[in-house]
Amino acid sequence: MIQIPDFRAAFGLGGGHRQTIAAVYLRGAGSGRTGQQHQLPLPDGDTLVLHDDCPADWGPGAPIVLLMHGLGGSHQSAYMVRIAAKLNALGIRSFRLDHRGCGAGEHLSQLPYHAGRSEDAYEALSYLRRYCRGSLIGMAGFSLSGNITLKMLGSDQHRALLPPELACAVAVNPPLDLPLCNQVLEQRSNRIYQKHFIGFLTKQVAERIRRFPEAPRPRYSAFPTRLRDFDDLYTAPVSGFDGAQDYYSSCSGKLFVPSIEVPTLILSACDDPLIPSESFKQLETPPTVRIYLAPSGGHMGYIGRRNLDPDRHWMDWRVVDWLVAHLRP
Predict the structure, then answer these.
(1) In contact, 163 and 129? CB cutoff 8 Å
(2) What is the widest separation between alpha-carbon atoms in the chain?
(3) Where are the domains of the chain?
(4) What's the CATH architecture for 16-177+252-327?
(5) Is the pTM of this model over 0.85?
(6) How far apart are CA 137 and CA 242, in angstroms?
C-alpha cells in the first residue's frame, strides 16, 4: 500500500476557497518548455496536440505518462508544468495534452471538449503506445479530465481495448457526479467560479466560430449565466447529446468506476468548493481503485506547509508517488 501523508495547509491558506484561489497565484517552478509537439488528428477531423517532455537520459522502453488538463486549462497549466518537471527529473517522459481548442490546439478543432470525451483520451493513449513501443504508460487527469480518465478506464466502449502497457492512472478532483457538481456550482458562494467558466467558454465558442465559419452554432441568443444552461444550449447538442441532462447522466464518472481494472488513485479534498465530497463517500469501488479524500486542499490547490515535501505542492507529489510506484515496481 502506497503511503499518503496527511495534507496540512500552509499557514493562512486554510479552507477550500483560499486553497483554490491560491493555486492560481502560487504556481511553483517549471518552465513549460517542450522539445517537440505531436499533432494527433482525430477521426472527426479535429486535432489534439501532445507536448513531449523527454528527459535527457530517457531511452526506448522506459516509462511514459500522459497528463490531461482541466476545464479552461492547457499544457501550460501550472500543475501540468510542475508535474511534468518532477517526472522529468526522475527520468520519466511525459506528454502534456492540449484538449480540443486549447493551448497549441486552439485553432485546430471545430468541436468542444467536455467531461465525456473519453474517446479523445483513448486516441492519445493509443498514439503514445505506438510512438513509444514497449513503454509502460501511466496517466493523470485533472479536474474535468479526471472524469474523462475514469470514463475511459471503466466504460464498455474502451475498457476491453485498453493497451496492456497501461499500468496506472490518477484522477484529481474529478467531477464524477455532474448533476450534483452543477447544483453546487450554482450556490451563491461559487458565483466567482461560475462566472469564470461561462466567460471562458463563451469566448472560446466565439473564437471557434470566427475561425471556422462552418463550426456548430450555439442555441443561445444571450450569454447564459449558468454552466448548466451553456451545456444545454451548446455543449450537449453539438456533441450528440439530447441536452444537458442526457450529457450529465451518461458521462458522470461514478457510473464507470465500479468497472475499472487498472490501478487507479482518485484524489480529492473534503473542502473542494466545486466537487462535493459526498459524491466520493457513496462511490462503489473495485479493489483496483483507491480513494483518498484530504480534509482540505480545495479544488486543485493543496498548497501545504514547508518541509512536508520537497516543495509546497502536496498534490504533485501524491500524483508522482502513485505513478512512479506503478511504473517502476
Answers:
(1) yes
(2) 55
(3) 16-177+252-327
(4) 3-Layer(aba) Sandwich (3.40)
(5) yes
(6) 35
